Amino acid sequence: MNAKLLADSSLIVAAAFYGVLLTLAAAAGLFGIWLGFFLLLSLWRFAYSVLRVAAQGKHRIPPPEIESLNPFAEFRLVLHFIAFPALLILLTTVQPFGTEGIGRALNGIGALLVIFALPASAAMMAMSSNLEDAFRPSNIIYVVRTFGASYALLVVVCVALVIAAELLSTYALPRLGFVTRALGNSVTVWALLAAFGLTGSLVRMHRTAFEIPGETEPEEDRATRLQHDEWRKDLDLAYGSIRSGLVAEGHETLRRLSARHGDGAEIQYWLFENMLDWEDRRHALEIGARLIERRVAAEDHYAALELFARCRGLRPDFALAPPVAGALAAFARSIGRHGAADDLAAAAGGWPAPREL
Question: What's the whole-number mean pLDDT along residues 305-315?
Answer without folding.
Answer: 84
